[in-house]
Amino acid sequence: MESKTVVNLLAALAQDTRLAIFRLLVVQGPAGMTVGKIGEMLAVAPATLSFHLKELNRAGLIQARQEGRFIHYAANFDTMNDLLRFMTENCCTAASCATEQENSCCG
Amino acid sequence: MESKTVVNLLAALAQDTRLAIFRLLVVQGPAGMTVGKIGEMLAVAPATLSFHLKELNRAGLIQARQEGRFIHYAANFDTMNDLLRFMTENCCTAASCATEQENSCCG
DNA sequence: ACAATACTTCCACTAACATAGAATCATGGA
DNA sequence: TCCATGATTCTATGTTAGTGGAAGTATTGT
């Protein structure tokens, strides 16, 4: 995973509303949640919500699935897993920090 | 770990120069590295470097140690560990993602 | 005390981000 | 076809972040 990609992923999550959206979608699992429902749960205006969903989608952290006139967004666990692996390997590996290296959350 | 803290930590790392600084310091271990040396390695102007070091320090990701007229900055592994734990527990926990939950990089 | 070195703060500028009302697009039902 | 609904895009506005030259602070050696 490239350093530039990592920065984009971190930037995507480094915002209150977006982190909240992502955490919400993680709980929902692959089924995801409609834009309207997300907006309702988090009390975010449609335009603002759309903006943040676009950001998360662009980063690859969530993915859209159209169903009729509803759009379901779901967390992309693979991307999150890659990010966590990078962070663990590159940001937490030193003499003082080499006890347990084997991490992995989603296989 | 609070959600607001997490956003601050992610924001601190979501920048090319800062991620590079942190990764560099992680490799150096507790001994850390002087500001001058960091600037030399990454080719960053003094004022810019100082700005980013301040940001990382404010987030709690690095810590300063004065030695004579040199200031050594070292990665704060505890903070990084807490962040990784939060991310694993809150951003990667769903039906489709509950295989191995036990992660931890620095004890 | 003076000069040199190591960093930081100040400042001004530019670019990027966040927000939301209004307009628009797309889908499904009457 | 027309309308209602779900979601996005357009547009405007305010805020925050990143950059680096110049000036300031702190420490060491002479």
UniProtKB/TrEMBL annotation, chains A, B:
The keyword Nucleotide-binding does not apply. Keywords: DNA-binding, Transcription, Transcription regulation. SMART domains: HTH_ARSR (SM00418). It comes from the Bacteria. Residues 1-95 form the HTH arsR-type domain. NCBIfam families: HTH_metalloreg. This is Transcriptional regulator. It comes from Chitinimonas prasina.
